[in-house]
Design brief:
3-stranded mixed beta sheet; Rossmann fold; 18% strand; 11 helices; 14 strands; 41% helix; 2 domains
């Protein structure tokens, strides 16, 4: 099978590429500019895998560039991971967030529908579309109301709903995944857990005083490894029902403070934790607990990588990445 990955130079994209190549598939990554940016993923993509990847160049916000790609090459499926995915940034730049996430998804759908209507599409949405669901409501299922509380969530909800509508109205083989919190090697340092890991690595290398700037440590999330997350994406691509959405998430709830303490314990560090207003979201979601029965019953998927390994791999990633 031949798959296109949008967002291959992001966080989950390289891990998905590793999985797909390992399963014997042909993989092509969409890259925004032909300036060598694809080389950046080699921090998590081994040479043996990288040598098997192909790349095409285009911009999701430019329909003509996508039309050219789908006119020139044929794909069995598309994993649409590309996005402006940082909620705090969406408050600062809602326009570009909507441009990338909403209009970019519309353009991709249009290009596929016009050129290759048999091509399967996975649209990567987010748990942020559920908004601030109270803990008393219990586990969040796919039937929960779409009620985002930040511009990022709204932009992804628009794409999510549009893909579902196209699948049902035009009978296209499209589906949606709504991933809950996931982390691991290559996670951007502007995201909470990775920010803490990055600062721990800097403290270890004596590049930072033993003070970690933090956001809201009381926030609770189910956390899974990015490599478990992309495995769910792959398994769903084989068995999905068109127009359906599938939650993908971990099993256990942790507060951000608990996760930080786990990483500090792994490296034997004692630090001061200092709240940085810039790391506190204007509107925070106190807790998200997911129900992933729909995905699990369909595919047999479940998270397998322990959080301790995920965090250790993330710390090692930053310890290797940061140079003195």
């Amino acid at each position: 099978m031949k798959y296109l990955i949008t967002g291959i130079t992001g966080f989950a994209g390289p891990h998905l590429a590793n999985l797909l190549v390992g399963e014997g598939h042909e993989v092509v990554g969409l890259v925004r500019a032909s300036n060598g940016r694809e080389q950046d993923i080699r921090d998590v993509v081994p040479d043996a895998v990288f040598g098997k990847l192909g790349f095409v160049y285009g911009d999701l916000t430019h329909l003509r560039s996508l039309d050219r790609i789908f006119a020139a090459d044929k794909f069995d499926g598309v994993f649409h991971l590309a996005a402006q995915s940082h909620p705090p940034t969406s408050f600062l730049d809602p326009y570009d967030t909507f441009l990338a996430n909403s209009l970019g998804s519309v353009n991709l759908v249009e290009a596929i529908a016009t050129r290759q209507p048999q091509c399967r599409l996975m649209c990567c949405s987010t748990s942020e579309v559920y908004g601030d669901s109270p803990e008393s409501a219990g586990e969040i299922t796919e039937q929960f109301p779409i009620a985002p509380v930040n511009p990022y969530g709204v932009s992804k909800a628009a794409a999510d709903l549009y893909v579902a509508e196209r699948a049902r109205s035009v009978k296209l083989p499209f589906f949606i995944t709504r991933a809950f919190s996931h982390t691991g090697p290559r996670r951007g340092r502007n995201f909470s857990i990775s920010s803490d890991a990055y600062q721990i690595a800097r403290i270890e290398k004596k590049l930072q005083e033993p003070v970690i700037n933090v956001g809201t440590l009381s926030s609770k999330r189910v956390i899974m490894d990015v490599r478990d997350c992309v495995k769910a994406y792959y398994l769903l691509m084989q068995k999905f029902t068109p127009g359906e959405a599938y939650n993908v998430g971990g099993d256990k709830v942790y507060s951000m403070g608990e996760v930080l303490d786990m990483m500090l314990g792994m490296r034997g560090l004692t630090v001061e934790k200092r709240v940085d207003p810039k790391l506190v979201r204007p509107i925070d979601i106190p807790v998200q607990i997911c129900n992933t029965d729909k995905c699990r019953k369909l595919t047999g998927w479940k998270p397998e990588i322990p959080l301790t390994k995920t965090l250790d791999d993330l710390l090692t990633y930053w310890e290797t990445k940061i140079q003195r």
